């Protein structure tokens, strides 16, 4: 028997847990300002998550999926996308959405059950948060098709969790992206858990990145707790997509340090020792260590960043809580381009007309 | 006016809309090189190229999802599902994304897709290729569902559907593709809402949609010989449903029957019964009747299939029953 195909999956890690460089630092990360932006957004995301969980616990918001421990993923991909690209997020991507210009209060509104939360004030083609699993990957492939049809030099980025890679929508998006050579980058936040299902029960594949090989394009792994590696690999993949070099799949390895959502209690199934070990690899400390090694921040400046982020979150909460609630009849207003007559009657009924 | 077959009318709508807007595309299985199972896109692959007449990988969920995504950034895909049975594979993205995205994004993101598909029973295609799923789409808020009964609507409604900013499901019928009708030579559009009286009458209203309109029309001809004047109402759109036209006709004739090719439970006929009961119960002079398929998977065997699916005779007999002549 002869070998007809072979493949390799690379793994990229630039910063270790102590913040030491393992590889040559990429050009973008030589600028302290850029690193401080990444750092600041990771802190902001973590503070936002803590506050959002608190709002849910006190009955002031609906179910919420924290991204605790996965800030490097969210912020790394959010920073890698160009302004003119399109982002099709999944539900744990708010860190990236903040970098795209979505307001914190809009994300709170979304999880507070206000449809206006997805009506971003900044005019972008970015998609609303996808709650159904992996369906956004196919929609993203559609956007990539549209970009190709219009002969534009843009790319599409879509994200999902490790559980989503078992869905047909994921495989179908991979198949279409390869077949049509689409300018699409698919990123997987492999946080080891799909609610209570661990990664090793999700798939027998050694990596999730290798699922790209079946679609005829490249897949690679990055350390999802290393924001420099995530940012670098995703930006490079997006550049390739824009340059007509086709799609990429990037699997970022991290760990879910929180419950799946506020409706979950991960202590039922996550081993305490594993969780303790996972905290050792969390993403914020290592970047902070690097920034301190490089004299890019001082303790005092760090403290100022933390306070500024807290302040920004507080302001967003204030705005969210003070937003006038939607009127009941608004449930009819967004449904059709022009409301059919039968629904006009129901709308009038709700209004007491 | 030119005599045009149903499939030719659909093809013409595609051609006109593809020529009108470079963002209109068609996608589906065997629609490019092969020109479509029912020839609805024949010749368009050569005219518009493979980027706009797209032969997709064989996965309904995949190309429907991709079409939906493309539509969310301004493309207007006409998605052909070879048989409505295969639409089952794409239901999540149709119902959870296409129908809901405008609502869930506060009106920011629209999904102007058209999904066309034959949704009736042909001859002996067996249970898994004979589904009639109109009732399911009809009950999905956010969708529009239309059922062109002939070439005039097939062309005019498809053109309106392409330009509509809501997702539109166009349910065609395997037995109607060769049906001919005179349609205007100049460009025209037909509305996506509103039932239509296709035959005036005064004694009973026969309500149908899609292929069952023809059963009603043929039954009306027979009833005329018996001295019964039957009005035929084509629903045209199942969502939104034109309740007013139903009420107006029933208040005129005081009797009605509703004919559908699907099973009765939770069906189109059941909905029409409910509408009449709510809107004009006291206009009724007789108990209405539903003509529908047997509550079984559509049989493969020809004799069994004929027994399971309603025909003109069934509608005729049903009307006689409503008229108290049985």
Structure description:
The complex is a heterodimer of chains A (353) and B (326). Chain A folds into two domains: 10-322, Thiamin diphosphate (ThDP)-binding fold, Pyr/PP domains (Rossmann fold); 329-353, no CATH class. Chain A is built from 13 helices and eight strands. Chain A has helices at residues 32-57, 71-80, 94-99, 104-111, 135-149, 168-179, 211-215, 227-242, 272-279, 283-293, 299-321, 330-333, 341-351; strands spanning 10-12, 86-88, 156-161, 184-190, 193-194, 197-198, 218-223, 248-253. Chain A has a six-stranded parallel β-sheet, with helices on both faces. The longest helix of chain A is centred in the first third of the chain and has 26 residues, at 32-57. The radius of gyration of chain A is 21 Å and the shape is globular. The model of chain A has no long low-confidence stretch (mean pLDDT 96). Chain B is of the alpha/beta class. In chain B, helix 1 (6-20) packs parallel to helix 8 (151-163), helix 3 packs parallel to helix 5 (91-98) and helix 10 packs across helix 11. Chain B folds into two domains: 2-183, Rossmann fold; 196-322, Rossmann fold (3-Layer(aba) Sandwich). Chain B is built from 13 helices and 14 strands. In chain B, strands 3-2-4-5-7-6-12 form a seven-stranded mixed β-sheet, sandwiched between helices. Classes of the chains: A alpha/beta (353), B alpha/beta (326). The A-B interface holds A 86, 88, 115-120, 125, 127-128, 132, 135, 138-143, 145-149, 168-169, 172-173, 175-176, 179, 331, 333-337, 340-343 and B 23, 25, 51-52, 56-57, 59, 61-63, 65-75, 92-93, 96-97, 101-110, 141-142, 144, 164-166, 193, 240-241, 243-244.
